[in-house]
Specification:
single chain, alpha/beta, 26% helix, 12 strands, Rossmann fold
Length: 287
């Protein structure tokens, strides 16, 4: 692969760069607008690097029987880290990936090729608009729906509202799971609002994160999971045991207390996620 290949994305105007992991042979980081967005190990796709991605990986491991194929929809492509993980751990899974940046998909496929045997279909366009136009046969048949949509370092407002989540949850099987990456900082106003909104349209929900993040003491990623049915209680110790540590799963009454009266987000009130300070995720100017 070319040393640190670069592409200018036409849709957003952001610069995308793929950098080799200096510590792990065969691993790479996709950086968009100075923010690391994905890490993928081509030689071992089961190795997940970012903490929040590891937590979603643990959720995927609990779906159905080990190794059983699933139907998955991913909003946001990045470097296809989780689609690669699903294919590696659950061969034969049917997967749909929705991505606005056509150039990004082409860039990643050229330099970080997908497994040839994988059944991964890419649909181009806005995540919410394309989700609502997916084939009718998928409605109520999805085991896993991942929401990891970012424009640069921020989640766009239109994929944070109750109207959006209502459409997303409608895609799930009765025991299917939606997993959402919510990045937030001290106070957690955004993440709490997302939890309140998800809980309002799903049968059950939980939040997973590093303990200090859940306490609102530093910026980071909270993984929210929801299902039309009650989440299996036996999952919770397993999700904790999987790490990264220290970690916590907040569910039930504790989740409602954590939400602390945050308002349900609507299309009329939705805002994009807060920006991290430049030193947290961004890796410098590459001009």
């Amino acid at each position: 692969m070319t040393e640190n290949p670069t592409a200018l994305l036409r849709e957003s105007g952001y610069r995308a760069v793929i950098e080799s992991d200096r510590w792990v042979t065969g691993a790479y980081t996709l950086i968009v607008d100075g923010t690391p967005q994905s890490h993928v190990n081509l030689e071992d796709p089961t190795q997940l690097f970012f903490e929040y991605v590891q937590r979603i990986g643990h959720v995927i491991d609990q779906l159905a029987a080990p190794g059983q194929p699933i139907t998955a929809v991913h909003l946001g492509a990045g470097a296809f880290t989780l689609p690669r993980y699903v294919e590696a751990t659950r061969p034969g899974s049917r997967q749909q990936v929705i991505e606005l940046e056509t150039d990004l998909v082409d860039f990643v496929r050229e330099h970080l090729p997908l497994p040839r045997q994988a059944s991964i279909r890419v649909r181009h366009g806005d995540a919410r608009a394309v989700l609502e136009k997916l084939p009718a046969g998928l409605r109520g048949e999805v085991d896993l729906l991942v929401v990891d949509v970012f424009s640069g370092a921020r989640t766009p407002a239109h994929v944070t509202s109750v109207e959006f989540y209502r459409s997303a949850v409608a895609m799930l099987k009765p025991d299917g799971i939606i997993a959402i990456n919510a990045a937030d900082g001290p106070g957690l106003a955004f993440a709490r609002g997302q939890a309140a909104t998800l809980l309002s349209v799903s049968g059950d929900a939980a939040a997973l994160a590093e303990t200090q993040i859940l306490k609102g003491r530093r910026f980071g990623n909270v993984v929210l999971i929801g299902s039309p049915s009650a989440l299996p209680l036996e999952w919770m110790p397993r999700l904790l045991a999987g790490g990264p540590h220290p970690s916590k799963v907040v569910a039930g009454v504790e989740l409602r207390n954590w939400i602390a009266g945050a308002s349900i987000v609507t299309d009329a009130t939705a805002v994009q996620s807060p920006p991290p300070s430049r030193g947290i995720f961004q890796v410098g100017n590459r001009d």
